[in-house]
Prior knowledge:
The longest helix is centred in the C-terminal third of the chain and has 12 residues, at 207-218. The chain is built from five helices and twelve strands. The mean pLDDT is 93. By secondary structure, the chain is of the alpha+beta class. The strands form three sheets. An eight-stranded mixed beta sheet has the order 4-1-7-6-10-9-8-12.
Amino acid sequence: MELLSVNVGKPRQNPWKGLGTTGTTGIDKRPVDGPVAVTAPGPKGTGAVGLAGDRVYDLDHHGGSDQAVYAYAREDLDGWEAELGRPLPGGSFGENLTTLGVDVNGALIGERWRIGPQVLLEVSSARIPCSTFQGWLQREGWIKRFTQAALPGAYLRVIEPGEIRAGDPVEIVHRPDHDVTVAVLFRAATLEPELLPKLLVVDALPEEDQAWVRRRLSA
């Protein structure tokens, strides 16, 4: 298992009216050479994320320690390349880490990854598609299609900071004692709400998500 690329985004104006939203976005992430510092960014609301040189601009929905790093599998990008009919280099889905050989969507919430000799990350949640993502790909109906596929990629929190770089090995060093994967969490949050009770046993689920699950189940 390997880290193929480390990707960060420079701010740009989002012009995708109709397909996306206006304003500034950091979804356009590009691979960088050399080591990149990884730290826990603190609470959501500042735009800070886990990788040096990166940030987010939708402060209500992105950033903070529970969404410090976003990972997507090269294998899933390859599948989308075939469907979309265009190349998707590392970072194309706004991911910070493009992995090879890692079952990102099959990762358990609370699973821990050692990347390189220093950094330890913990799988925390699943990416939910938004209009900016749809606009970035310039694809009508993309939110619906991405949701149907249930290949969301994983958000991770930083447990041990340090530096990472492309080519670093990825090792799964801990798997919790439950069966709630990134894909199961995503399906529960979108098209299969009958799965929501399964999420109640997941201690590593962000507090914000736990509160949302309890509200949904009590409604």
